[in-house]
Model the fold of this input.
Amino acid sequence: MKEKVILGMSGGVDSAVAAYLLQKEGYEVIAVHFSVHNTEATQKELQDCQKIADKFSLTLYSYSLEKEFQEKIISYYLTETGKGKTPSPCPLCDDSIKFHLLFQEAEKRKANYVATGHYASVSRNNICNTILLEVKHHIHKDQCYMLYRLSPKKLNKILFPLASLEKAEVRELARDIGLFVSEKKDSQGICFAPEGYQNFLKKHLANKIQKGNFIDEKGNILGQHFGYPLYTLGQRRGLGIKTKEICFITKIDPGKNEITLGNFESLMKDKVQLEDTVLHLPFERLKDMELLARPRFSSTGFFGKLKEEEGELTFHYFEKNAHNTPGQHLVLFYKNYVVGGGIIR
Done:
């Protein structure tokens, strides 16, 4: 009897090729598509999923997760932005929405595994003696960062068919097998804000989008901003004012509706506090390890150590850096393995 796999299908080239590879390996593949809002674009995605499913003779189940997505992701995004932070909802969505529901579907349909078209790899035999995500692609192409919250228990039941492939190889394979999505563009930006995040915030945080003052680090007024939620710590472009020197946003004060501008040095940190952390190895092991911390997806990372101070987990860098934005995820690696992470406070 064939082993059964629940495949998350988006309508893009990655999950389509994942379906092909799983079938080729002898699995019985059941496709599942989740939509988080109802638009023309999401209807087109569902149509594409059905075409892919038809090509491979797969059963496709489609579900609307609009309510769950609103409650867990959009609400979180708006709340944290209202606090002057720059939240990154994708890692939370992957863990608490997408994979959570894939596993529910696997249980319902008595499947052995769940699978997606992520560029990630699961290591079951490694120096940590724990099932962990392993970075095998170029660090900016690998998606382990986004999946860092997945537990070893879940990882043991996840298949990533694209683990050993690069994007160009996936597209080439899609062309070879005649997939109509072979040249389909990758999704960009925040999925629930196709009109752009600033327009989304102007609509949903209208009461907080009010003009306020840019000030320097001595409190002198430098000009006006258009609403603190539209800006992010470390930003230097698009400020809309002229200054004698290059300035960066070094502080956002929602209570006063003030944004402080300063020099690059003011952004440098040698440690960050973490909240909502997940650790895939015991802290007693991690605290003795030299870890690589990536404070944003685009970062190649900085070395340091994880410590506990007054009941709070804090990451101490060996060298200062300016990449730490409250609300973003700091993901921890030992060698090439994802060992945990959390949200920068």
Summary: The mean pLDDT is 96. DSSP finds eight helices and 17 strands in the chain. The radius of gyration is 22 Å. The chain has three domains: 4-117+161-176, 207-266, 267-344.
